[in-house]
Design brief:
Layout (H helix, E strand, L loop, with lengths): L4 E3 L4 E5 L1 E6 L7 E8 L6 E8 L3 E6 L5 E10 L2 E4 L3 E10 L4 H5 L7
Parallel strand pairs: 2-9
Antiparallel strand pairs: 1-3, 3-6, 4-5, 4-7, 7-8, 7-9
């Protein structure tokens, strides 16, 4: 079965540079590979992850204010199947960190 991309798709605007990618599990898959390209399918490779065993990944910090496309390949002993391409844009005000708001409170307690 082809992997189905869940997020981000449809040109979604994301506010972090290290973008969390999520797709639906496919049955009998042993590993997933993720390819992220700049702008379009034939664009420059922006990131690549191989040999993943979970149906999610986080990109390295991508340049902000740019559009990216991504694709997941699911592989098992019989071969590989590719998802359709998903598209997202990293906003020009994106932070490098994932969810900075949830980490701020960690060190602010007082005795």
């Amino acid at each position: 079965a082809k992997p189905v991309l869940l997020y981000p798709i449809g040109g979604a605007l994301v506010n972090v540079r290290a973008v969390p990618l999520d797709w639906a599990d496919t049955t009998c898959t042993q590993t997933y590979n993720v390819l992220v390209k700049l702008g379009k399918k034939t664009g420059k490779q922006a990131d690549k992850k191989t040999g993943l065993t979970n149906s999610q990944a986080t990109t390295k910090a991508l340049p902000k204010g740019k559009t990216y496309v991504w694709q997941v390949t699911a592989c098992n002993g019989f071969g590989c199947t590719k998802s359709v391409w998903g598209k997202f844009k990293v906003s020009s005000g994106a932070t490098a960190l994932l969810e900075p708001s949830s980490r701020q409170s960690v060190f602010t307690f007082s005795r």
